[in-house]
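Annotated sample (chain length 222).
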Amino acid sequence: MIPTKKITTRNSKPADGFCEWLAQGRDTLRKGDRTRIDLLIAGSSFLSHNPLERLTVSAICKVAGVAHGTFYLYFKDRNDLVGAVLGAFVDYVQLQMRAAARCAGDTTRNTTEAYMLVFEAHPALMKSLVAAGDAFPEARAAFQRLNHEWIEAVVSSAMRSDKGAPRSRPDLMRRAYALGGMVDQYLTALFVTDDPWVRDLSQDRSEVVDMLTDLWKRGMAQ
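Output written by the structure step:
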């Protein structure tokens, strides 16, 4: 269980990085808990520079500086570690977006900007979430949880602010899933696959945030 930690506010970089967020409070923990945190940080660091398929127990132990057998005191296998790392990353992303939602100004724009900042700061980890295949069901499940929990929040907000003929909850859920997929596809092209045409169109980050915000608002309009 990763304790809740201090997070960032609007227009700032995400908590000095996910690894630093994981490490907060580490020195106050017992040795066993510190070792588990070290393995999570090693996994996060590895996935920040390598695809999921290259992750091995040996590689993680080398990065963490622990014996191979020590790994199995904390995780069943590499998939178990991946699930724990990406599950914690999902918590981190959600905390960033919730903090943005509490800031003054346009909530939709604030949260969209926060999500884009996390995507830009952690493209490899986001790729691990978005593009997780059948070989890593834990990663896929982590991304599905991120999607579902955030979409539930978006739809609940939309229903509270109803200003006209209300749409049904299933309709709003479908719209939110479709819109979220569009946003992920655009940000993946921009930050992960480095599509040259998308990059050329995205020089002004503020304009990108405005565009994505407009898509959310129009798509969820009652």
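Annotation: The two ends are 39 Å apart (CA to CA).
Annotation: The chain has one domain: 18-220.
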